[in-house]
Amino acid sequence: MPLRVYNTLTGSKEEFVPITPGKVGMYVCGVTVYDHCHIGHARANVVFDMIYRYLQAKGLEVTYVRNYTDIDDKIINRANRDGVPYNEISERFIEEFDKDMARLMLQLPTFQPKATEHIPEIISLVERLIEKGYAYQSGGDVFFRVERFAGYLKLSKRNLDDMQAGARIEVDDKKENPMDFALWKGAKPGEPYWESPWGQGRPGWHIECSAMSSKFLGDTFDIHGGGKDLVFPHHENEIAQSEAASGKPFVKYWLHNGFVNINSEKMSKSLGNFFTIKQVLERYDAEVLRFFLLSAHYRSPIDFSDQNLKEAELGLERIYKALAGIDERLAAGTDHAPTAESAELEEKCGTIAARFTEAMDDDFNTAMALGHIFDLVRSVNRALPVAPLALLTAVKEEIGRIAVTLGVCDSVPAEFMQRMKDRKTSEMEIPVEEIEALIAERAEARKAKNFKRSDEIRDMLLEKDIVLLDGPQGTTWKVK
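Structure for Cysteine--tRNA ligase, as requested:
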């Protein structure tokens, strides 16, 4: 089965056929660097990192470009508020973005261009649009004529006449049409600026992506990605200005990830349900957050809640526990002959690669792919005590290959389990020393056949979400 992707432009799934065989050009809109990133940014970047990884796993040579918008009204407003130069704001939050993405285990893109480093390319593109009659100067500003471009709104499937009739757009006497958008903005007093044929100013938001994508990927490339909120106006305007300038199709496949909701409500600062990545990672492990973001199909909305994060944590722990069990068996070195349980595990192990690929080839269906991993883990748990060591080694290798492709299960299992235990114990009301003391007291009570006291201790700890696990080597504990 070939890879099929959902193309927003055509509204359907299509077979993915790169423009140049064996190579893929992919551009994903980055962040405007004026504040800390929120979990919506986390989702978009994890999604396209997963796509980047999977395309590489299929043997394709991927040139991945993700930009930084480092000049914008929001950056200027933040700089004015803080009383610092605009570039101090942009550099600070580029650094913070990079830290967040590293914690979420993102691979570095091939190129990470900044808008301010490509002013000559932006000016050249604007000049070309003016020469072709698609843009016009008005005062110190330059605007794009949307009515001149016949394909305008083909991505969002909107109607220009309806939009104009129903629009509540601030009157701007500089524009020929209220829907025209800025390619270049004349500088206001005190604003940062660059010299241009139209006077001192700075680029509009949309033009930077057209200029940078064409520089690194050419006039036409394979994949353009971003969140659904970017379909209009940002991506729509990119198409208009890029195709008007080059006369060529801009992008072959448009991919957009779904929104993040908070407890079933749209995430919004005004609703007070807005969480930065840093805030979330104070409470949850970064790998858990990444696992959660991949647990739903990338085009579907995903509901962020404590309950769903805890379920993701439990799911990831199930995989790690199976891997830890495999490591313990391999370290022990005791082998076994095949059994009925191991025969089932061998069948599941033999087909997991094909099942994973089938899921991912269906428009990067990570939810289904993770379901296949859980199916394999269930077989591991049943067969673990009796499975041959060679089979367990093969299972570990298969899970490892899938893990690299998804960017999860990247830790040593024992270290991950300890990390989870440490995080949970740090939030407990009862100190670890008290838990250990009660377990020791319980052991003495059991030795003295005082089972009433033994049960009391067990129940008392359970009320504090501490689960005791009795085994041949003694009693261990975990947080419920």
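The CA atoms of residues 1 and 358 lie 7 Å apart.
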